[in-house]
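quick one if you have a minute, typing this from the bus. theres a chain ive been looking at and ive put its sequence and its fold in token form underneath. please have a look and point out which stretches look like helix strand or loop to you. anything you notice is useful, everything is just below.

***
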Amino acid sequence: MNTHDRAVEGIDNLELLSNSELQLAFNRVKAAYNTKGAFSFSERKEKLKKMAILLDENRNAIINALSAYFGHRAIEETRISEIANTVANIDYAVSHLHKWMRPKLRSTSMWFLPGQNRVMPQALGVVGVMVPWNYPVNLAISPLAAALAAGNRCLIKVSELTPKTEVILRTILAQVFDDSEVVVVGGDATVAAEFASLPFDHLLFTGSTAIGKKVMSAAAHNLTPVTLELGGKNPVVIEEDYFLGEACHRILWGKTYNAGQTCAAPDYALIPKGAINDFRVWSSRHYRSLFPCGAMSMDYTSIINQSHFNRLQDLVDDARNKGAEILQLEDFTDQHRKHRKFPFTLIFNPSLDSKVMKEEIFGPILPIIEVNGLDEAIQFVNERSRPLAIYHFTDSTESKNKLAEKVVAGGMTVNDVMLQYLQPSQPFGGVGGSGFGAYHGEEGFKTFSHMKAIFSQRGFGSFTGIKLLYPPYGMLGRLIIKLMRG
């Protein structure tokens, strides 16, 4: 047997966790935390390192499983997104864990000397992670790594569209954790609703805004704090001072990566007035350079299922019916439909009430809208829900700073797309309609930690500074209160 597959031998025969066991699994993990407490520094570091090793050892099983789900998933995309980026997040946590865990001294007001202030990170307890279908390994293991770095135990709910990922994850993680430390569960929307209603100490959900609202509502019954990583419509702003051909190349890569089925993918582009013809020419040229065989290329990923494929076609038809110009960069054939390969499609100047301008696209379709300069682009973006990401192509430092200051978005990449997500040191998260909270890097550690404020009273014998403020209040006490501006 290939060494990369040895940890998942016999996975097709593994019995999955039933819906009725969910509450029991949570109770078991919670009881273990209450008894044993948080993982130690050495336990966290050892388990993180082992997860990274097992991801590498099982890359072939992961690649094959994900390609089967999608109909076809470009191998290199799986290696980059599901394995390399996930391992990078783990490695970053390992190398910084000691620093993150160390209590931090804070200044102490002179009135409370010689006491001392410090902040101690403390594990929350049991964390829930709800995983979508588009990156089922990365979006399970990266949050788990952050939760583990903070010392927590974890339950992971994977999408019902990726059942084999559930089995792979359970088999890999069983070599790192016992069933009182981490549990992986699958199941349909009913199980997901039950999962969201469990009294977690923190719950992270990645998915659509509509489902995110339901998750937050369910969590509210237990006052469970939530991190919502949602989608939205991520704008691209191209300015006249930036070479349009290079911008097209980079945008096209981001919009076709995983066939656009990425929450951080560019959703629409705002380009200078009069640039449509050049955008059309450059996009056609770069599409052929990236995919010589078009969407049937082995480097071009399929749409996850027929329902999503039909939804994308409906977006294009609706835009066409409302007067937009449609440019599909290759003929749409029966082979495309059979393999759910949706060709890259440009929609020029769509009606603002068309579906493609109201819904998150989540596919290789890019609406193009002309604007008169940066101010109009900023106004256009700010009139809509706050995006998970914004992408700005400019050579002007002044313009770059202006857009960064004027537009509220979860993250930003200048002169490229999606790369903010791939930085293990940077927080990843939304704002407003695109979610709230963040993970990755130190922010992930803090998300799954309680930062406990500790004041340590110290004195000279029985005397402490605060005793000057004990009653009965005399002249000295009143003077001190006055100096404290009370």
Notes: Residues 1-16 have pLDDT under 50 and may be disordered. The domain at 235-425 is CATH 3.40.309.10 (Aldehyde Dehydrogenase; Chain A, domain 2). The longest helix spans residues 75-101. The chain has two domains: 3-230+439-449, 235-425.
